[in-house]
Amino acid sequence: MKMASIKEESEDLMIEEDFTVKLEDVDQQTGSLEKRERTPISESQKELLKACFQEGMKSVGSPLILTAAEATGLPTFVIENWIGNYKRTLKPASAMRPIKPKLHTRDLSPYNLFCRDFLRNKGTLKDIKKRWGSLGEEKRQKYKEEAAMLKAEAKGQQLSPELRELKIKKHLKQLKLEVSSLEQLGVESVILAYDRHQAKIEVQEMSSKGAAGFLDSTDTVNSFALHFNVISPVDSVRKEPVDVLVKRVQDLFNQKYREAGGLGKLPYQSLLNGNITIDALGLPSGIILKKPSFYGRKQLEEVLKAAEMISFHISPDVRIYSPPADPTFENEDQCPEEPGESCSSEAAVTTADDASYFCSADDEKNALEEWRQWHPCKTCQHWSHLDCGFEKAKSPVVSPRREHVLVKRVQELFNQKYREAGGLGKLPYQSLLNGNITIDALGLPSGIILKKPSFYGRKQLEEVLKAAEMISFHIKDQCPEEPGESCSSEAAVTTADDASDFRIVHVEKETLKEWRACGGCQQWSLLDCEFETSLCVHCQQ
DNA sequence: GATCGGAGGCCGACGCATTA
DNA sequence: TAATGCGTCGGCCTCCGATC
C-alpha cells in the first residue's frame, strides 16, 4: 500500500559514507555514579582486547584476561563483559527479534517517518537535516499523508494490552516523580492506584515519607482495595515488611540454635570470629547462614519456607583459627563495636570445600569477596582470611559483588559526614537505633532516610553516593542529658523494602519522642512513654 | 524561546537460563 | 556448580518538529 511504496522509494536514500555514532565521543570523565556506571573503553584499549581475543581470550575463564587487564588497565569484570558482547557482534544478527511495542505519546510527524526510513536504510543522523531539506515536495507530501493516516488509525484503534501497560507504567513513573518533587517542597502526598483490568489485586502506593506513616497507621490501603469489591486480605495487598521477615528468620535461627544444643541466641559474632562453627543443613540452595538482616526479601522468604527442613549442628571443637592481631584485620569493615553487632560482611560458616588456597594481595578482589574463612596459605603457610588475604585457587575468576563495594562506600561516606559533624570515629548505628543519639541527615535523596548502609538496595546506595556532596549530618544532643530537646527514632525503624515497590518510603513506626519536664516533680521524661498531660505518670497518680 | 520526545544503532552492564 | 550464552536494559549519539 501507501506505506510500502514510501518504503520502496526510500531505498534511494542510501548514503555513501558510513558514519557511526562513536561512544568514545561521550564524556569520559564520569568515574562517579552520577548515572549508571559505564566503563568507557578507548580505541586503543579495544585494539588490545581484540588482539588478546585473537590470541585465544575467547571465554570468561581465559588466563589471558589478566594479561589484557594489565595491558589495558581495565578491571577483569569489564573485560569479561566485553568478551561476551564482542562475541555477539561477530555473530550474524538474530533473524527474527520481536519488535518491542513503543509508546508514542505524540503522533509521529512526517519528519519522524522520514527519519525512520532514512535510518532504516543505513542513513546517518548527520545527514538527516541535509536530506530532509533537499527532499522533494512530492516525497514530503507522501510522508505527510502517511503521518495523517497513522494518526487517524491510532484514533480509531483500541490500545493493545502491551501499549496500555506501557502507558500505565509511564504515568505511574511520572506520578512517582511528582510525589517526590512535592515532598521536596514539603508537601506530603499519597497516591493509590488500582488497575481494574488486572485479574490480580494490586494497589500501587506512591507516598511521601510522612504520608507513608499515615498509611501504616491506618487501614486506608486495604479500604481502598475493598472499595472495588475485592475480597482481599491485607497480605495480598501489601507485602510483609522486610524487617518483620528479618525478625522471623532471627527467631527461627535462634530456635534452631537452641535445638542444636546452643544457649540463648545464635552468636553471630562468635561465628564471625571463628570461635564456633555451625553446619547449617537444609537451607535453600544458594543461601548460606548469615545474619538475617543481610538477606534480601526473597532469601528471607525462602528461608522461612524451608523452616522445617533447617537444622543446625554445632561443632565447638572445630575452631578453624583464632586470628592474631593481624594488620589485615585492622582494616576490616568495622567488626562490632557494640554487642550483638556484626560486620557488614557475611558471618562465617563452614564449607565442605577442601580446595587449595593461596595468598592474594589483590585488594580490589578482596573487597568484592564475601568469604570469611581462615585457611593456611599452601605456599607461605600463613593463616589468613579468605576475604582479606586469599583467593580460592580453583576459581580464579570471582563473580563481583558490586553491592558490597557500594555498601562500603556509603559506610565510609556516612562515617566521614559523621566526623565532619563533630562525631568521633564511626557513625554509631546502634545508638541511633536505641534513640540515644539523634542525627539530622540533610541532603539525602528524596525517599531515602538515614539507616545502616547494608539495609539500602543497590539503587538507593547509588543515589546516596550520587548525592554525596549534598549530604551533611547534624548531630543533636543525646536525649536524656539535654532537657528540652526532642528526638525522633525514625532512623531506627526503616525497612529495606523491595526496589520494585512503588512505595517510595516504608516507615514502619514513627515515634515522636519528646522530652519534657514534669510540672510536678520536674523530672525530665519521654512524652510518649511517660506523659499524657504536663504531669508525668507518677505525679498523675 | 525553551523544552520535550521521536527516530535506530551502539555497547557496557546485568540477570537468568542453559550447558558442560 | 561454575562457566557460558543470551536477552534485555539503559544511556548515549544528532537533529528538528511539535508543543507549551
UniProtKB/TrEMBL annotation:
GO molecular function, one term: DNA binding
Keywords associated with the record: DNA-binding, Nucleus, Repeat, Transcription, Transcription regulation
Claim: Repeat is one of the keywords in the record: yes
PROSITE patterns, A to Z: GTF2I
Pfam families in alphabetical order: GTF2I
A single Gene Ontology CC term: nucleus
Main location: nucleus
Keyword flag DNA-binding: yes
Compartment annotation: Nucleus
Full protein name: Uncharacterized protein
Organism: Danionella cerebrum
